Amino acid sequence: MRSREIYERGLEIIPKAAQTGLRSETHYPEPFVPETAYGCKIKDVDGRIYTDYHLAFGPIILGHNHPEVNEAVKEQMDKGVLFGAGLCELEVEVAGKLIDLIPSAEMVDFVNSGTEATYHAIRLSRAYTGREKIVKFEGCYHGWHDYVAFNVNPPPDKVGKIYPHSKGILKAAYDTTLVVPFNDSDAFKELMAEHHDEIAGVILEPIPHSVGAIIPKKEFLKTLRKETKTYGSLLIFDEIITAFRHNIHGVQEEFGVIPDLTTIGKSMGNGYPIAAIVGRREIMSMVHNGVLVSGTYSGHPSGLAATKKTIEVIERDNVIDHITKLGEEYRKALNDLIADTNVTARVVGYKSIFAIQFAEGEVVDYSSIARIDKEKFKRFAAEMRRRGIFFTPNPMKRCHLSFSHTEKEMNEFLDAAAEVLSIFA
Ligand SMILES: Cc1ncc(COP(=O)(O)O)c(C=O)c1O
Question: What's the 142 CA to ligand 1 centre distance in angstroms?
């Protein structure tokens, strides 16, 4: 098999034969070497075709290789790949569109990845408040930098204790990053009462999809807004997964809580590398005005052209309605299946994202997720892959839907899931 040959060679010269640790997990149960991807299908170098529910960790909202987005990027590339000087008109156009769409956006700064966006949002919160500490929530992922690489998905015996996501993290970060359980308003209020004059920013995924999905209690988000306002800390919504996928205005609109800063990325460019920090004018004005934000490739015309077209298609074709409706159907059908087969499992999710977790009970925070049956999920993912359905075997992650997924793919997914769950019953 070519997949194995390429993988074996890759293993010798590329750590774990992948460009991210999580990507390396998709080499289970066997090496995964994709060659092409169109719509909701992904094909490997051995000609095996899968329906893709991984969608590159979520950005592919319209479907892989979307012709209109590609055409827009090609047109832009014919004019110039990277100017790296001054300002190009596309930057102004796309920034203006984001300001029209996202309630918290008064100014915009483009970067290339979500990690850069959260890094700069936090640095801005420190510069603006003159304070050092930040608060994050257990189960939330905001990228790989030292400020936030704590308690994303700690092992069950480490829940509630500060737990680094990596070796090599600065000692100072242990002291400046405070971690609170998601949805726990009382714990947050207590922490603010004790540390408020040290807290620069409070960052969260409004729906922590980095561990499947935790739905925020309305009163929790309102508490975060009220407390941060009272004490002069900045509230930062990390909407890198949720904006555009769940709501073109970000979920901040539907939850009625407007943060000071928002980070966006993933679905805005349908797979092209782009992300942004958006927020209040008086905070954003500090960028390049005492606060260092920089990047050779920031505001890359390819990402901007992709974003302009992706947003246009999302609005024109009612993409969010389609993927939301489909997501609801998957969750309902999967819940029915699980009830029929008597397997201990639950379906979590929101709109076009769903995840099957081998565990019982309601999900309110990370501790409700820490003890899911990880081995069973890996076997489930492997069996589904044998049946032509692709998603990561990481039990904490999630399936995404795109505009290219239809009822046909849903029925195939459900038939495969019924077969696999019956093996587990
Ligand atoms: C919510 C959230 N924030 C930040 C990031 C980091 O983004 P990137 O991988 O583009 O650096 C991710 C990536 O998965 C994410 O899901």
Answer: 5
